[in-house]
Amino acid sequence: MKTRIKEIRKEKGISQKELAEKLHIAPSALSQIERPENNTQLSTLEKIAAALNCSVFELIDKDSFESASSSEKAALSNMAIDRANEKISRASDICAIAGYSWILPDEEDGFIHLVDKKTNIEYAVTDESFTAAVDGSGEFIDFNFEKLMRSAKIVNNGK
């Protein structure tokens, strides 16, 4: 499948050398991978996507995806599902460590709801602030959640 690796890298303002260092490969190897016609393995695309903080789907040329085989499309779909499940699991673990449980966004208000396990008070936070808190370093969970809760709105007062 054709990729957009070079294009995405440039959009993000990352040099080839910087990305190669993040991936622990030589810049010349990255140069080969970045060629649109290169048939890069999905596992490599996943590593590049993580390094560029984007999805594998963003790295793949849309026309190339359209013409991909059913098995390639299925592999990409499974990869996306696995990645989503990992993120959900990580978010749940981090919330538990911080003393909260969480509920996916409510269609009515669009916020993620956090429930303080000690007080049973429910808070609403934006998806962006929640993602920043749970994607942050595990070493700073208390700091990240303290910052998150400053932007939270009380939905119920433990009733």
Write the layout of secondary structure elements.
Elements: H1 5-11, H2 16-23, H3 27-34, H4 42-52, H5 56-59, H6 62-66, H7 70-98, E1 100-103, E2 112-116, E3 122-125, H8 127-135, H9 141-150, E4 153-156
Antiparallel strand pairs: 1-2, 2-3, 3-4
Please tag this protein with its features.
159 residues; alpha+beta; four-stranded antiparallel beta sheet; 9 helices; 4 strands; 11% strand
In words, what does this structure look like?
This protein has 159 residues and is an alpha+beta fold. The protein contains 9 helices and 4 strands, in the order αααααααβββααβ. The chain has helices spanning 5-11, 16-23, 27-34, 42-52, 56-59, 62-66, 70-98, 127-135, 141-150; strands spanning 100-103, 112-116, 122-125, 153-156. A 4-stranded antiparallel sheet has the order 1-2-3-4. Helix 2 (16-23) crosses helix 3 (27-34) and helix 8 (127-135) packs antiparallel against helix 9. The longest helix has 29 residues, at 70-98. It is elongated and about 60 Å long. The protein starts with a helix and ends with a strand. The mean pLDDT is 86.
Described by its quaternary structure, the protein is single chain
Mean pLDDT: 86
Please state the overall shape, judged from the principal axes of the Cα atoms: elongated
Sheet bearing the most strands, described? 4 strands, antiparallel
Low-confidence residue ranges: none
> How many DSSP E strands?
4
Considering DSSP H and I runs of 4 or more, what fraction of the residues is helical?
55-70%
Total number of helices:
9
Q: Evaluate the radius of gyration.
A: 19 Å
* Strand-residue proportion: 5-15%
Order of helices and strands: HHHHHHHEEEHHE
Based on secondary structure, the structural category is alpha+beta
